[in-house]
Q: What sequence folds into this?
């Protein structure tokens, strides 16, 4: 009994506890809990008889939830009684009891395969050890996880797994965070008995993101199940049989999923690893920073792993409400864009059209001088799609102080109504979508706009066969859907009962309507919103006291906070008459209408589109280098945490504006980020409640007045290229590769 | 010193083992992935022909309409018969379309079963049993003899298109090991048969091949003249008379 448990204990106390403390995601690490008191038979006998046993904590905070009090059964794990709901597996029962069962193929979010046999436990009265992941727990079952039989069974399995495994940990990128490595510490032998040649498997080409070393594969089929169940691309399969079995696509095929990077995380060994990260760093030399992603409006929880000043990789963090434990490929692989094409010094465009680096003092002075020369109504400020709430607050305050209120945030269009939060948030919440039994997607392609929201919808559709109706241009879906039409006319038809989908909507208990943020750019935004309003009046289930099925799916990280802070333009003719434009990271703003003699200040982190027209450049920091508040599409407020130092002379956005305000003589009254936040508190107090979702006070939509006519123009495509949507992703080489290889031409 | 000697000896032993044909897995029936060739790539159009279309319907009718994918094996078999004994990738795609699953789900099935040939095979596809009992009784020598005699590699088709050699796992004739199966497509793919030749020697297997080449059908079953089916060589040695009732129990009393 000694060696394995000793090893597992050693493992726990030294290496893994460090990992555990530094990154909770690895709470999921499969270490083997050993219970010393059970190693001595007397102690075991004692514990069996004694009623009040020392409390054991469930593995990784496993919680039990009893949907129906009648369905409670009691089982005994190593003599400890635990109450679990009917239908749980033995493995789950064990984790509730605080015993972590070693496993390879079992994954909480995937279907059960039961093909690795690592999870064998002994069950009293069963002649053989049972695979706990696939065995439902039965009332009164006496499960023993720590007996010689269980241990021997696992050792046998481990020996078979290692038989054809190349044992190339020193050159394997998974080394240090490999389930096989960890568990072979507990159950592996220090030598093998296999003297034949090991098998060889041809490596597959799955595209620019996932590197394969197929000899390391242990055929757990997690990747196959992930691809077909979560990502919804039926590309991967288990081919062949016996020792010739291998994972592959059979025909030459790249994995074209926006979630493909997640197979890197779920592969328990080093068979699927990150191609861009290959041989770049060892995971134990990385510093993990828990922060959030800003490449879309979902705000996926991520951990930025950095070494020194460099971001080495991005991995997901668990957040059940937002991204579960997945992230999109854009989130995961945009990180090389963080170091390329960065602006590092303030610059002024000389008379020859070339940018010259200058000192901050000079740059600020030049801008202040121009500001004093233009009329306040000729000043326009645009916040970019990656802006945090602090910087938008200070930009708004600054422009207000110099007398202009022409300020908006990219993506929000200029005829948006920010009065009611429910009018621009995902009121159902992302996790709430799982309850919906009918979806109507209007002018939104969630797969490219918000991959994690799409994954939720797919999960729901898979689980409950919820109906999905879609109005918009033909596009790719990875779940079954009905394409109802392309223009708002279909919406009118549904409203007037002229469309079969009205019946579906009216019978649904929890219908969810999701409108894409693309409609903010249409001329008839308010007309469409008023249509939605009539829909909610017609289908009473849409908005009830406990369900709000009216959602707007935003596109950019900055949008929600910008609207909360009231960054809405005063007039529709901002750009045409502007003489001074302040672009705060705004790269996708149409500047064609701008008069030739207008003065443009670009404050941003990347030399992207905005720079072409700029007269002065202020370098600022990216999300991995600053502390900033973001609100995601469902209204959940989260903060980024600086992971790496910034480049060159760049400064945080709000600080630049604060400095500029002083040079202009309209000093903003805050000097610290806390100061900015207390200012935010006056405007939008919900932005200070970090990691909380503040629901809109008033559910439902206010019928927009005006009620213009709905135009016949079809809904457009909002995201042309999933992989390149903002300054960071456009600067990324990996994303460029992806868009050339993976996007459909 | 001793250790070094021992390890040297071990190396020799291993080398000796390796000499036994670690034949290259060069052709795609043994490969678990597909390599495009002019006559086998996803762009070659493939459809069930008119004669088979009713059969497809008939096969599908055996299964509930929401479990269409259950029909995948019989349909693959039908497709293989239609295509002269092997399954091009476009035929698998066609089957996938019929049973309404992703093509990869069909590839998985087709690669699992060794009776689905995913590359062209000879008129006579010789499948050598490679599982332990046959191996102990000399299946490697049988395969060697075949490959040498035909001048091909494993899964390669001879120039005249008559023969190819493959491997299969235990076919249940271990008692007469070693054995080969001859998948005989000489009567067309519809009338194909699987014939077992058991109790082989390298010499005998070459004779069988020669006989097949001449168009004869050598008698299948055991090739050991002293045996009848799988009985012991030279006649039965046990159970010669009426079996005696067990001494411990009085059967009549039951
Ligand atoms: S590649 Fe990884 S995840 Fe996929 S079956 Fe092999 S070991 Fe499992
Ligand atoms: S985890 Fe139970 S069989 Fe793999
Ligand atoms: S081992 Fe060859 S037939 Fe069984």
A:
């Amino acid at each position: 009994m000694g060696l394995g448990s000793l090893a597992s204990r050693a493992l726990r106390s030294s290496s893994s506890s460090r990992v555990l403390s530094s990154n909770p995601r690895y709470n999921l690490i499969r270490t083997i809990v050993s219970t010393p008191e059970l190693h001595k038979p007397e102690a075991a006998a004692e514990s069996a008889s004694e009623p009040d046993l020392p409390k054991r904590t469930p593995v990784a905070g496993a919680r039990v939830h009893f949907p129906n009090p009648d369905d409670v059964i009691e089982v005994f794990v190593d003599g400890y009684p635990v109450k679990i709901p009917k239908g749980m597996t033995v493995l789950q029962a064990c984790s509730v009891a605080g015993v972590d069962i070693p496993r390879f193929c079992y994954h909480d979010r995937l279907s059960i395969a039961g093909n690795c046999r690592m999870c064998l436990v002994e069950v009293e009265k069963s002649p053989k050890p049972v695979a706990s992941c696939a065995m439902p727990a039965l009332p009164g079952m006496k499960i023993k996880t720590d007996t010689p039989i269980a241990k021997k069974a696992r050792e046998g399995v481990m020996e078979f797994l290692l038989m054809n495994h190349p044992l190339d940990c020193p050159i394997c990128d998974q080394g240090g965070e490999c389930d096989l490595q960890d568990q072979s510490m507990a159950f592996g032998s220090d030598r093998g008995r296999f003297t034949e040649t090991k098998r060889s498997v041809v490596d597959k080409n799955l595209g620019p993101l996932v590197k394969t070393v197929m000899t390391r594969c242990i055929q757990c089929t997690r990747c196959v199940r992930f691809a077909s169940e979560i990502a919804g691309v039926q590309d991967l399969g288990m081919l062949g049989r016996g020792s010739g079995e291998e994972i592959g696509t059979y025909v030459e095929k790249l994995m074209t999923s926006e979630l493909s990077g997640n197979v890197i995380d779920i592969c328990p060994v080093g068979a699927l690893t990150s191609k861009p990260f290959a041989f770049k760093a060892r995971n134990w030399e990385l510093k993990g920073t828990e922060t959030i992603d800003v490449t879309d409006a979902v705000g996926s929880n991520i951990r930025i792993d950095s070494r020194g000043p460099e971001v080495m990789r991005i991995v997901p963090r668990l957040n059940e409400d937002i991204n579960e434990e997945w992230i999109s490929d854009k989130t995961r692989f945009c990180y090389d864009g963080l170091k390329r094409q960065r602006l590092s010094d303030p610059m002024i465009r000389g008379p020859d059209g070339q940018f010259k680096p200058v000192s901050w003092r000079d740059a600020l002075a030049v801008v202040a001088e121009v500001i004093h020369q233009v009329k306040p109504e000729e000043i326009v400020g645009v916040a970019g799609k990656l802006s945090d709430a602090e910087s938008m607050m200070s930009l708004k305050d600054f422009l207000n102080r110099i007398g202009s209120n022409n300020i908006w945030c990219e993506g929000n269009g200029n005829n948006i109504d920010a009065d009611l939060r429910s009018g621009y948030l995902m009121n159902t919440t992302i996790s709430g979508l799982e309850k919906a039994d009918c979806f109507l997607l209007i002018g939104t392609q969630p797969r490219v706009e918000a991959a994690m929201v799409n994954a939720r919808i797919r999960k729901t559709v898979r689980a409950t066969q919820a109906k999905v109706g879609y109005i918009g241009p033909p596009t790719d879906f990875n779940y079954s859907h009905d394409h109802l039409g392309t223009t708002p006319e279909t919406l009118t038809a549904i409203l007037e009962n002229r469309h079969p989908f009205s019946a579906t909507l009216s019978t649904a208990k929890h219908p969810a309507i999701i409108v894409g943020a693309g409609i903010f750019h249409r001329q008839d935004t308010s007309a469409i919103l008023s249509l939605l309003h009539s829909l909610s009046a017609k289908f009473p289930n849409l908005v009830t006291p406990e369900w709000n099925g009216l959602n707007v799916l935003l596109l950019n990280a900055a949008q929600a906070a910008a609207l909360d802070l009231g960054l809405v333009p005063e007039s529709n003719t901002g750009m045409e008459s502007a003489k001074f434009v302040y672009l705060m990271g705004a790269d996708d703003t149409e500047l064609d209408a701008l008069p030739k003699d207008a003065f443009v200040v670009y404050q941003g982190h990347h030399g992207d589109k905005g720079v072409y027209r700029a007269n002065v450049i202020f370098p600022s920091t990216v999300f991995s280098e600053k502390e900033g508040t973001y609100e995601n599409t469902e209204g959940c407020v989260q903060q980024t945490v600086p992971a790496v130092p910034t480049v060159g002379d760049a400064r945080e956005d709000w600080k630049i504006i604060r400095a500029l305000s002083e040079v202009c003589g309209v000093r903003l009254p805050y000097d610290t980020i806390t100061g900015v936040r207390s200012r935010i508190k006056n405007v939008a107090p919900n932005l200070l409640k970090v990691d909380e979702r503040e629901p809109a006070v008033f559910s439902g939509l206010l019928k927009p007045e005006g009620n213009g006519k709905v135009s016949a123009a079809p809904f457009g495509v909002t995201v042309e290229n999933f992989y390149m949507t903002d300054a960071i992703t456009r600067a990324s080489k990996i994303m460029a590769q992806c868009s050339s290889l993976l996007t459909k031409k | 010193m001793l250790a070094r000697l021992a390890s040297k000896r071990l190396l020799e032993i291993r080398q000796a083992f390796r000499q036994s044909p670690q034949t290259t897995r060069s052709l795609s029936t043994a490969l678990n992935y597909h390599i495009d060739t002019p006559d086998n790539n996803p762009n070659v159009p493939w459809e069930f022909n008119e004669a088979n279309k009713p059969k497809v319907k008939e096969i599908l009718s055996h299964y509930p309409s929401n479990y269409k994918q259950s029909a995948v094996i019989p349909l693959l078999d039908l497709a293989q018969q239609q295509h002269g004994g092997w399954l091009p990738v476009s035929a698998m795609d066609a089957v996938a379309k019929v049973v309404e699953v992703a093509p990869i789900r069909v590839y998985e099935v087709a690669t699992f079963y060794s009776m689905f040939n995913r590359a062209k095979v000879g008129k006579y596809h010789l499948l050598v049993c490679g599982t332990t009992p046959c191996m102990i009784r000399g299946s490697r020598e049988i395969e060697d003899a075949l490959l040498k005699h035909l001048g091909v590699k494993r899964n390669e088709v001879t120039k005249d298109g008559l023969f190819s050699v493959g491997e299969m796992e235990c076919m249940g004739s271990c008692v007469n090991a070693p054995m080969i199966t001859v998948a005989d497509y000489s009567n067309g793919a519809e009338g194909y048969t699987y014939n077992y030749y058991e109790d082989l020697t390298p010499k005998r297997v070459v004779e069988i091949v020669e006989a097949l080449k001449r168009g004869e059908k050598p008698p299948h079953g055991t090739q050991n003249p002293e045996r009848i089916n799988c009985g012991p060589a030279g006649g039965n040695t046990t159970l010669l008379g009426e079996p005696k009732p067990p001494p411990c129990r009085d059967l009549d009393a039951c």
Observations:
- The interface with chain B takes residues 195-197, 202, 204, 228, 234-242, 244-246, 248-252 of chain A (CB under 8 Å).
- The two ends of chain A are 60 Å apart (CA to CA).
- The pocket of FE2/S2 (inorganic) cluster (ligand 2) is lined by residues A 103-106, 114-119, 131, 133-134 (CB under 6 Å).
- The CA atoms of residues 213 and 271 of chain A lie 5 Å apart.
